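>> received
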Amino acid sequence: MPLTAKPMFSFYSPQALHFGRGQAAQTAALAAGFGLRVLIVHGSNAARAAWLVEGCCASGLSVTTESCAAEPSLPALEAALDRLSTDRPDVVVALGGGSVIDFAKALAALIPCAGAPLEYLEGVGGGKPVDSAPLPMIALPTTAGTGAEVTKNAVIAVPEHGVKVSLRDARMIPNIAIVDAALMQGAPRHVTLAAGLDAVTQVIEPYLSVKATPMTDALCQAAIPKGVAALRAVVEQDAAEAWDDMAWVSTCGGLALANAGLGAVHGFAGVIGGQTGAPHGEICGALLPAVLASHVEKAKAGTQVHTRLMWILDLIDTAFEVETGAGLSALRNWSRDMGLRDLAQMGLNPEDHAQVAKLSAGASSMKGTPFALTHEDLIAILRA
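>> returned
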């Protein structure tokens, strides 16, 4: 398929990307290149980060740790910044899923800043640019989904307003991303399912985005077939080769969304996540079939977006071994068979659809959607 002609574009990425099994072993040595004081941000189970803490200590580094037990919130961010105010690290190392990495990115960005965190948040906050360069950061993802290790924003929940918003700056892309599938394999099925659906969504939406570039197109064209093909094997079999593919797809998605934006799935996800507290990837997985179906209805034959949509749908048909055009239903049914909840089960009541549609219409991710979606279109997607 021909690439969209774009005479001018910018492309943001980490300074270094280390990909493949075994790459995590060099983390301590890489961290030492930034200084002696290391802040390690990990998930709820500190034991999973023990190897990293021990490795850094053995390398002569001074280690402080912070736990991110849930999707990052403004109160949690404020509390962590307060704890770290008298012990500023030289480098931040994140080991975990997208929430952990986002929390670490926010800490790295805000520790050097003079203002309160709310001043820098989009939407509900002041939206100020980060006024100092973030601390150096290394990101090691333990899920294949968000691509947060290569993106320039951190998603933060603001419970007071019932929304999730971004802290965003191109300098927030981690200096080093280490993508080692050995850190990912063996995750619980519900985590793998949500992360895998998010990874697939995040290579599909940038490919359909009005902000797509030749660089992001190249990433997505290579990653979409691998992601669609690997999804079932990762979730059903925990297959090593499929994990390697999905890890690569996730990173490609992060690079693509950081440079081409996303679309309606993610436009909805921030609002729904803020209101229900449901995991981001699970929300994306529940919405993807309905959003693609809506796009198909609007796409005119012969246009580039129609060609791209048909290619994506053919890949889904093939992956689920169904007749032409039945792939979206098969994807939805398979996801639910694997344990994915629908939006109502996540806590989104039908009487809230109108308000969610209204709030989602103004989300930054909606700027990438290939079609103008009316209020009625948005409600129809939520009801599908």
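>> The mean pLDDT is 95.
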